Amino acid sequence: MLIALIGCVHVHEDSAEAIRTRAVAEVERGATPGLAVATVEGRTITVDVAGVAALADGRPVERDTAFLWFSITKLFTATAIMQLHERGELDIDAPIRDVLEDEWTLREPPGRPITARDLLCHRGGLGNPSVYDRAHPAGHAPATLAEQLADLSKAHGPRLRRRPGQHARYSNFGYLILGRMIERADPQGRDYAAYVRGEILEPLGMVHTDTRWTPQMLAHGALGHSRAKSMVTSMMVRVADPGVFGPTLDEWVTTVPFELEGAPYGGLIGTAGDLAIFLAAHINHGEWRGRQLLSPASVLAMQTPQTDNRGAELGYGLGWHTGRIDGERYFNHMGKGGGYRPAVRIWPARRYGVVILTNRTVYDPRPLTRSAPPRSRPKDAAG
Questions:
Q1: Local confidence pLDDT in tens for the 383 residues of the chain
Q2: CA 239, 123, 97, 131: dihedral to nearest 10 degrees?
Q3: How many CA atoms lie less than 13 Å away from 149 in the CB half-sphere?
Q4: How many CB atoms lie within 10 A of CB 352?
Q5: In three state form, how does the secondary structure of 204-253 look?
Q6: Which of 60, 70, 19 is CA-nearest to residue 41?
Q7: Smallest Cα–Cα separation from 129: which of 210, 267, 245, 239?
Q8: Residue 193 carries which DSSP code?
């Protein structure tokens, strides 16, 4: 009986307001120095904030406080790939070599080329080379994606870790490849950051988000905090650029504003309100305030569980992690590193989504993201 109870998870139904109140209380109990929470109910976005953006100076978290999103960026990379797919600029089921040509150096098994779909759901058979050393203080001139791809390809080597489609294994390297595919397939020849800015951020009105710290974002940005004696912090300090670290405060290791060189797998920086807009577009069939980010068919494709070679679900859609709680399908993504812990989750059947942004590395947002407002009853069943 005890074994059956361990790990038993249910959807905790509560109002969006109550969920935000619980999130704010996380700061009051000392779980994180600062937090921003945004809920999406259909087309209604509400943001609450609490705590401090930086323990060093006591600046409060505000609605326009920017946090690093890390791996949540992969959802933007996946969205960009799907945009190019539906426009006919690339085919997610065609060999990657068709787009990257001689930049593609991995050895594939005969008759089973790796595709963008494989990389989107992490079933490409790739390894995951360390990227801790690719964070640098704000303003550092990053290498181009072509240069980064060549560098990580060398670190990875030409050998796949497993047969494509056999298993899902998370890979930042795979999303760097997807980012370079975006650059190669874009008919305007833009780099990854310019494409995402022009095709996703600006159309949605996400004016507080970028792959670099802007002057406005720097003025209100949240700095990272990690417990000095934790294993995650020790590894980060050992490998990362020393320039990303700020002063040590009592038991906290802090960071200065920094940027991740591998933008397609973890480079976006922004506010909870902006990230909620992105979720709202995916909840509303690809549309937000008259702008069609993706076709409904592409949104549905991203929210379709992918399978391995035997037809078993992998726990991924295209970009999204996915699963069921109490039989209900959700889609989520989290990020982690450098003093930040962001998370998003959407419940399509409820037209609900939630954003949690914190400035502490070790924090569990899942009790909040597993909560959702009750389903709306059909009008003819009311009263």
A1: 333 333 568 899 999 999 999 999 999 999 999 999 999 999 999 999 999 999 999 999 999 999 999 999 999 999 999 999 999 999 999 999 999 999 999 999 999 999 999 999 999 999 998 777 889 999 999 999 999 999 999 999 999 999 999 999 999 999 999 999 999 999 999 999 999 999 999 999 999 999 999 999 999 999 999 998 777 777 777 778 889 999 889 889 999 999 999 999 999 999 999 999 999 999 999 999 999 999 999 999 999 999 999 999 999 999 999 999 999 999 999 999 889 999 999 999 999 999 999 999 999 999 999 999 998 754 433 33
A2: -10
A3: 23
A4: 24
A5: HCCCCCECCCCHHHHHHCCCCEEECCCHHHHHHHHHCCHHHEEEEECCEE
A6: 19
A7: 239
A8: H
Evaluate whether 117 touches 93 at the Cβ level (below 8 Å). Answer: yes
- Residue pair 67/359 in contact (Cβ under 8 Å)? The answer is yes
Q: Which amino acid is at 219?
A: A
For residue 380, how many other CB atoms are within 10 A of its CB?
6
Q: Is 82 helix (H, G, I), strand (E, B) or coil?
A: helix
pTM: 0.95
- What is the token pair recorded at 18? 């109550």
- Which tokens is 237 given? 């300090």
CA distances from residue 260 to 38, 123, 204, 288 in whole angstroms, order as listed = 24, 24, 23, 28
What is the crossing angle of helices 172-185 and 73-86, to 10°?
A: 40
